[in-house]
Write a structure and sequence with these properties.
Elements (H helix, E strand, L loop, with lengths): L8 H13 L1 H12 L8 E6 L4 E6 L2 E2 L1 H13 L3 E6 L8 E4 H17 L7 E4 L5 H13 L2 E4 L6 H11 L3 E5 L2 E3 L2 E3 L1 H9 L7 E5 L13 E3 H7 L9 E2 L3 E7 L7 E6 L1 H14 L7 E4 L6 H13 L3 E5 L10 H9 L3 E4 L1 H8 L4 H4 L8 E5 L5 H11 L6 E4 L33 E4 L11 E7 L9 E2 L3 H9 L6 E9 L5 E6 L3 E4 L2 E4 H9 L4 E11 L3 E10 L8 H15 L8 E5 L12 H8 L16 H8 L3
Parallel strand pairs: 4-17, 6-7, 6-8, 7-14, 8-11, 11-12, 16-17, 16-18, 18-19, 19-20, 29-30
Antiparallel strand pairs: 1-2, 3-13, 4-5, 9-10, 14-15, 15-23, 21-22, 22-24, 24-25, 26-27, 28-29
Helix pairs in contact: 1-2, 3-4, 3-10, 4-5, 4-8, 6-7, 9-10, 12-14
The structure holds adenosine-5'-monophosphate-propyl ester.
Adenosine-5'-monophosphate-propyl ester binds next to helix 10, strand 20, strand 24 and strand 25.
Length: 635
């Protein structure tokens, strides 16, 4: 029996039981099967939840790019590794074969070396979805540099915070990016950020929109001429299993973004294994994940997981609405996509449009559909199943997180009977627990609680860059000997899991993870604002949207409220990015507070949700009178 590809549901259950009985043997067999190791491990796993410390495949030596590129060259060298579909449908798609990818990654790696980047140095990548993004990631991994990709929709302040947190030496960016009918001047965002980033020595600039930009003498360099000159082979740096591979920032419920640190061997084994099984990838399939590589989904399931399997992975530069709402379906037809992996928010947005956009395209190449990033509501699930999958393609609703590195709960296509809104069963090796308010594990079915993981898995983040204490407090202190996800979940009568949403102050907006505290900090920067509180409320396209309650300073001055709203959102855009803008801003006289001064978000959340009949007991509040006013002026 091959452990690498699960073939029946019975085999899944067998493997699952084995993975619990003997996790080391289970993961060892998977790691043995398909990878190039320069040296095998001494120990499969070693862990201590109290420190917390997790080591997978200790003693092993490898380079992940040898696994993602070199080993495929002899067997599928001419096969397309990366299929680049540009923003503009009239621009030709680019097929980058495994041979070509090898050459381009090696050249890029040599450029990094020439520019003084060494093993362990951090390189910040701030690029649109163009091939250079995937290639620069792999080039870092080739020489052992730690990449930190920052989503190119983030503002200059957000970029600077992330560069400074990991003290990156280099930024890789482009002159600009295309986004539908718009162009975005990325380079000037970088320039602004770098005014406060002393660690940056070099900026490499890819040409994409051919705009007229300035290069700062001694710091900025065009990428193309350097690549042209570079040698086309680069011996991979041999890495230890637990050497850092990348940092990726994610929002926390409080404070600065958390630089989740992922390491080499475990991440590779897990993303490769889960890619193969969750998407049921076969040799001639053309797989498309619509996420941006700036998020974990793109790292694990556009770059590393697919390439480790020798897959053809599509990189799409554009947006679902350009040139019209049929773009996704057009691309599926054009490239005969077999696996399509997207976000519920995109499905909801496209479901609002005329069905002709879907029906006018031949989607018969599709075999598996996937969703990720937020709960998918029943209506969107059925729309996807009926109109895109034509009721013949399984939908894999995949639950996971930046912190988990790879998919944790998901149906296996054609094996696990799907159930709308349920991510269904844990993948082999993943031991889940639901925990009650007292911290006790809830056994049995038809129960709900806080979702935790009781046993380590290979791709879990090992730390928060520069702040191991915060890693411990956020994920390992709520309950002993387990990882706390921050999500609530229920387990139905057959043991299927359904994620019910965050139980902390993180709100998922259009699949993006947003902490309320940093947004409140931005709102409070407005000179007219005294205090604010942000909660989520249901939104039919975004899943959740943000509702801000804002107290203004008493200056005696009359301000136009609409202008204030615009100014507040402008500050949020500058500090974080447009994704964090507030949909509703209500100006209030006061916020409901406990006697110790803590804002009662539960009440604000209910008001935003329009659940006014069960606000609970407000009499214990410090200022119960404000609640009535807030309700009266609710937006
Ligand atoms: O609340 C869960 C939600 O997204 C959170 C993780 O966000 P992020 O780290 O940005 O990673 C997103 C891509 C992996 C989770 O804590 N989430 C993710 N997938 C699902 C989900 N909620 C419900 N169903 C899902 N399939």
């Amino acid at each position: 029996m091959s452990n690498y590809h699960v073939k029946t549901l019975e085999e899944y259950f067998q493997l699952y039981r084995k993975s619990v009985r003997n996790p080391e043997l289970f993961w060892e067999e998977i790691a043995e099967e398909h990878f190039v190791w320069r040296k095998k491990w001494d120990k499969v796993v070693e862990y201590d939840f109290s420190k917390p410390e997790f080591k997978w495949f200790e003693g092993a030596k490898l380079n992940i790019t040898e696994n993602c590129i070199d080993r495929h060259i002899h067997i599928r060298g001419d096969k397309t590794a990366i299929l680049f579909e540009p923003n503009n449908p009239d621009e030709e798609a680019e097929h980058i074969s495994y041979k070509e990818l090898h050459k381009r990654v090696c050249k890029f790696a040599n450029v990094l070396k020439e520019q003084g980047i060494k093993k362990g140095d951090r390189v910040c990548i701030y690029l649109p979805m163009i091939p250079e993004l995937a290639i620069s990631i792999l080039a870092c991994a080739r020489i052992g540099a730690v990449h930190s990709v920052v989503f190119a929709g983030f503002s200059s302040t957000a970029l600077a915070t992330r560069i400074n947190d990991c003290e990156a030496k280099m930024v890789i960016t482009s002159d600009g990016s295309y986004r539908g009918a718009k162009t975005i001047d990325l380079k000037s965002i970088v320039d602004e950020a770098l005014e406060s980033c002393p660690s940056i020595e070099t900026v490499l600039v890819a040409k994409r929109i051919h705009s007229d930009i300035e290069l700062k003498e001694g710091r900025d360099k065009w990428l193309a001429p350097l690549l042209e000159e570079a040698y086309q082979d680069c011996v991979p740096e041999i890495m230890d299993a637990e050497d850092p591979l990348f940092i990726l920032y994610t929002s926390g419920s409080t404070g600065s973004p958390k630089g989740m640190l992922h390491t080499t061997a475990g991440y590779m084994v897990y993303t490769a294994y889960t890619f193969k099984n969750v998407f049921n990838y076969k040799e001639n399939d053309v797989y498309w994940c619509t996420a941006d590589i700036g998020w974990i989904t793109g790292h694990s399931y556009i770059v590393y997981g697919p390439l480790a399997n020798g897959a053809t992975t599509v990189m799409f530069e554009g947006v679902p609405s350009y040139p019209d709402f049929g773009r996704f379906w057009e691309v599926i037809e054009k490239h005969k996509i077999t696996q399509f992996y997207t976000a519920p928010t995109a499905i909801r947005a496209l479901a609002k449009e005329n069905l002709d956009f879907v029906d006018s395209h031949d989607l018969s190449s599709l075999k598996v559909l996937g969703t990720v990033g937020e709960p998918i509501n029943e209506e969107a699930w059925h729309w996807y199943n009926d109109n895109v999958g034509k009721k013949k393609n399984p939908i894999v609703d995949t639950w996971w997180q930046t912190e988990t590195g790879g998919i944790m709960i998901s149906p296996l296509p054609y094996l696990t009977p799907t159930k709308p809104t349920y991510a269904t069963l844990p993948l082999p090796g993943i031991q889940l627990a639901l925990i009650d308010e007292k911290g006790k594990e809830i056994k049995g079915n038809q129960v709900d609680g806080r979702l935790c993981v009781k046993y380590p898995w290979p791709s879990m983040a090992r730390s928060i860059w520069g702040n191991h204490q915060r890693y411990k407090e956020t994920y390992f202190s709520a309950y002993d000997n387990m990882y706390f996800t921050g999500d609530g979940a229920l387990r139905d009568e057959v043991g299927y899991y359904r994620i019910t949403g965050r139980v902390d102050d993180v709100i998922i907006v259009s699949g993006h993870n947003l902490g309320t505290a940093p947004i409140e900090d931005s709102v409070n920067e407005h000179p007219a604002v005294a205090e604010s509180a942000i909660v989520g409320f249901p939104h039919d396209v975004k899943g959740n949207a943000l509702y801000g309650y804002v107290i203004l300073k008493e200056t005696g001055e009359e301000r136009n409220q609409d202008n204030l709203r615009k100014e507040i959102n402008q500050i949020i855009t500058e500090h974080i990015g447009p994704i964090a803008k507030l949909d509703k801003i209500q100006f209030v006289e006061g916020l409901p507070k406990t006697r110790s001064g803590k804002i009662m978000r539960r009440i604000l959340r209910k008001i935003a949700h329009n659940e006014l009949s069960n606000l609970g007991d407000v009499s214990t509040l410090l200022n119960p009178e404000v609640v009535e006013n807030i309700i009266k002026e609710r937006l």
